[in-house]
Amino acid sequence: MPQLDLATFPTQLVWLAVTFIALYLVMALVGLPRVGGIIAKRRDRITGDLDKAQRMKAEAEAVIAAYERALAEARTKAQQALRETAERLAAEATEQQRKLAESLNAEIAKAERRIAEAKASALKGMHDLATEVAQVAAAKLAGGAVEAARVKAAVEAVLRERV
Amino acid sequence: MALELHPLEQFVIKPIVPMHIGNLDVSFTNSALLMTIAVLLISALVIVGTRREELVPGRVQSLSEIAYEFIGNMIDETVGEEGRQYFPFVFSLFMFILFGNLLGLIPYGYTFTGQIIVTFALAAVVFTGVTLIGIWRNGWKFLTFFVPHGVPVVLLVLLVPIELLSYFIRPFTLSIRLFANMLAGHTMLAIFGGFAASIGILGLLPLGLDVLIFFLELLVAVLQAYVFTILTCLYLNDAINLH
């Protein structure tokens, strides 16, 4: 069996040592750090990309939130403006109504005063007429002049009774 | 019909460049040539194959990364974090044996892992290294490794020698397992090859068998490299963590 030929052992051991130590050194100093570096770099890149994606997603969410906040704000503002306008319009309408009512009331009062005046003057006219008629009638009936002041007093009394 | 079979001839060491240190014959031999080729191929795979440092690896770079992660995971699973400092050694050991086994399967190649002195030297390095690491890390506590826990004192008389024996037999089992697998496989290939060459048309049958055995040997080549390496990791775990 050639494997048990002791004479070949020194050369085999020497070359095994030389080649294996060379392999170990090359692997330990160059090869493995390089492969390990490549793998680590890829892992970093992947986690980096994932982080970036996460960050962008967060950013997008922030933008959406800001947009929604702005939207809600705008809506609130619009509602407020609407309400204010409605209130203002209502106040204006009330004011105008009040003014209108006031001016109408004034007109009414004026008209009433005018009516009262007209009525008073009409009544006065009627008194004078009645007094005149009564005076003429009394003169015709009694056949002589009747004192104007007494006629007037009598007419006044009668009218006060009737009216 | 002359049937001449020399199945062990393939293991003969043949000097290529004669060299001497004093009286010692340290010629560069066919075995040394294959060791050199193995080292060059592994270096090419790991260094030249990764020269572009691609983020998306090509075929050769993928192979390097797969080997790297395979051995890395093996150490992580068997030894744990502390085994990481021995990663370059374990990786070199695995690749050296794997390439030795695979290169041996190339016709007219040579199987240096089929040499008992080579496998024994590797196993002895592992054994010595692991034992030294065990003593260096644990001091006298390393001796408790040979005393099983929770066993009656009477049984210890029996068990401690068994533990010692099973420990010191490790370099032999480790080296003989690899050596014997390579020896048996290549001898079988040579015997069937010899039949195929010498019995004419009937030789197609052993030739077919040889092809099948070749595939089996491919499996064995990878498997034995794996077994050698994972046993090294398990021994390392024993030394570091003292089960």
Brief description of this entry?
Chain A is built from 2 helices and no strands. By secondary structure, chain A is mostly helical. Chain A has one domain (9-162).
Can you offer a commentary on this structure?
- The complex is a heterodimer of chains A (163) and B (243).
- Chain A is an all-alpha fold and 163 residues long.
- Chain A has one domain (9-162).
- Chain A has two helices and no strands.
- With 243 residues, chain B is mainly α.
- Chain B has one domain (9-241).
- Chain B is built from seven helices and four strands; from the N terminus they run E-E-E-E-H-H-H-H-H-H-H.
- The longest helix of chain B is centred in the C-terminal third of the chain and has 38 residues, at 204-241.
- The model of chain B has no long low-confidence stretch (mean pLDDT 88).
- The A-B interface holds A 1-5, 7-17, 19-20, 22-24, 26-28, 30-32, 34-39, 41-42, 45 and B 8-9, 11-13, 15, 19, 21, 24-29, 31-32, 35-36, 38-39, 42-43, 46-47, 50, 53-55, 57, 61, 64-65, 68-69, 87-89, 91-92, 95-96, 112, 114-118, 121-122, 179, 183.
What is the N-to-C succession of helices and strands of chain B?
A: EEEEHHHHHHH
> How much of the sequence of chain B is in beta strands?
under 5%
Q: What is the average of the pLDDT values of chain A?
A: 89
Which runs of chain B of at least 5 residues are low in confidence (pLDDT < 50)? none
Question: What oligomerization state is this entry in?
Answer: heterodimer
Main sheet attributes: strand count, strand direction, barrel closure of chain B: 2 strands, antiparallel
- The SSE order of chain A reads HH
* Strands side by side in the biggest sheet of chain B: 1-4
Helical percent range of chain A? over 70%
- The structural class of chain B is mainly alpha
What pair of chains forms the biggest interface? Answer: A-B, 36 and 51 residues
Shape of chain A: rod-shaped
The separation of the N and C termini of chain B measures 61 Å
Low-confidence stretches of chain A: none
Q: Beta-sheet strand percentage of chain A?
A: under 5%
Structural class of chain A: mainly alpha
